[in-house]
Amino acid sequence: xxxxxxxxxxxxxxxxxxxxxxxxxxxxxxxxxxxxxxxxxxxxxxxxxxxxxxxxxxxxxxxxxxxxxxxxxxxxxxxxxxxxxxxxxxxxxxxxxxxxxxxxxxxxxxxxxxxxxxxxxxxxxxxxxxxxxxxxxxxxxxxxxxxxxxxxxxxxxxxxxxxxxxxxxxxxxxxxxxxxxxxxxxxxxxxxxxxxxxxxxxxxxxxxxxxxxxxxxxxxxxxxxxxxxxxxxxxxxxxxxxxxxxxxxxxxxxxxxxxxxxxxxxxxxxxxxxxxxxxxxxxxxxxxxxxxxxxxxxxxxxxxxxxxxxxxxxxxxxxxxxxxxxxxxxxxxxxxxxxxxxxxxxxxxxxxxxxxxxxxxxxxxxxxxxxxxxxxxxxxxxxxxxxxxxxxxxxxxxxxxxxxxxxxxxxxxxxxxxxxxxxxxxxxxxxxxxxxxxxxxxxxxxxxxxxxxxxxxxxxxxxxxxxxxxxxxxxxxxxxxxxxxxxxx
Length: 489
Ligand code: NAP
Description:
Layout lengths: L11 E2 L1 E3 L2 E3 L4 E6 L2 E10 L3 H19 L3 H17 L1 H12 L3 H21 L6 E4 L5 E9 L2 E5 L7 H12 L3 E5 L6 H13 L6 E3 L4 H10 L3 E7 L2 H13 L3 E5 L4 E5 L5 H13 L9 E7 H16 L19 H18 L8 E2 L9 E2 L2 E3 L17 E7 L2 H9 L6 E5 L3 H10 L4 E4 L19 E2 L8 H5 E9 L1
Parallel strand pairs: 1-5, 8-9, 8-11, 9-10, 11-12, 13-14, 13-19, 14-18, 17-18, 19-20
Antiparallel strand pairs: 2-3, 4-5, 6-7, 7-22, 12-21, 15-16
Helix pairs in contact: 1-7, 2-4, 2-6, 3-4, 4-5, 9-10
Bound molecules: NADP nicotinamide-adenine-dinucleotide phosphate.
């Protein structure tokens, strides 16, 4: 069946269940956060009943897909990557119009999603197991990977193509069948991946897509009998709820959630590079990366110079519609997110004083139709202040003074979160001290805290994450199980 895409003015995107595009009388729309007059797309609003149908279809498709040889599954993933590549400019522009990140950022993210499909496509021909000698004579032992079954994938809006890709590709290559539930503010990129999988020849029922309210679809996914595992990326509140509900059914779960990521800047750091790395990690993608730096913890000896240079650099950032060339910072994704950011800026004003730059919504020069907030730097923030403790998920940086390396490490680790963390230093010994003591799943040194690669394990520790890591070879630990075999010959 061909893909239903209506007129360019208001394209309507259907759900995808058992190899069919299924429209619903109920719909919801997405709008461009840089210009809310623009409706980007209309979606069929899925229901709990749609999830049940999708789960039944995925269960029916499971034996066929699980017994398809890995290289055959891989071939479909390779073809999916090729199809996404052919639509590269279109999908990147759709991402910018729907999520708000700049076009170069959207292109970078889309390229990463394509790389992920190729990486896991290749995994179909590798798919390692375990083979070791037996203790017993004339006994051969080995363990092979097997799929878990039907998997529910729930994704957030901030990486609308990369996160669906890094869940869908490993789930599929391991032989699972899937139901994808994208974030409601930006479902289009995930829909494009599903469209590409459909065109690439994924058998019916192997891939299913149900958009709609997180509460309804999410609960239905967690409770659908055939679903054996849930991989979720999003907020801690929802992750906590999934943990509780899914545990009742003993589902396998993987939760990637929030962060309050620090960058430590030591006195021996290359100041220019440190400022560039912190500004990049704090403000690019409008600070809406889960790995963004929201706390710069700066050693006393370099503190004043760092604050001055960071404020100077931040003031130069060009904010605007991400489709415009030269724009570096786009809008917040929606009104709710913008209001959260503005609320935290007011809390910051009360607790930490007037910001050194930024601190307000931008409405001049044609920005009044979007959700733009000035990149905002607070200095002299105390570790106990709210903006140093709670995730803001926007363009707000809190700079904290530390006496020395030990003090900086203590402040950096004093958070319930543990997603990413960074240090800027030229001292090799302190680098290693930091590597072994930093309480986070992703560490960078002399690089921004955000910006990871797909071929390595990804994920946090402490309250930021639960379950096996995503991406790289580690991804298969969640999406597969072992079957261990002993043969006497
Ligand atoms: P969110 O509100 O938790 O939503 C994430 C997804 O969960 C969406 O698809 C949402 O659907 C769905 N959902 C909402 N309520 C649900 C429920 N009761 N049951 C099941 N699913 C439900 O998070 P977000 O605002 O999209 O994303 C921002 C958060 O994600 C931040 O905290 C950020 O740090 C985190 N994040 C973490 C990582 C990581 O790898 N650690 C990566 C990216 C983002 P609707 O959209 O329909 O509500």
